[in-house]
Fold:
Amino acid sequence: MTFQTAVAPVLPPVAPPQFPSPSPETAAAIIAVASALQPDLAQGFQVDALRLRLEMERAFGGSDDLASATASGPAG
Structure:
């Protein structure tokens, strides 16, 4: 008897997590970021966090900081 067979009857079955399918706009934005970064990566340049953030903000039309501030409401 292995650990897996000893524990399996006790644990309930778990369904795999369900993730929503990305929209066509999301897919297009991801491709835009990849296209923007590809020339530098092909030449062996590193992509730092600042450059990645810039390209992501351009492609998705904003910053995640704005979304989190809006979601939490005004400070005060």
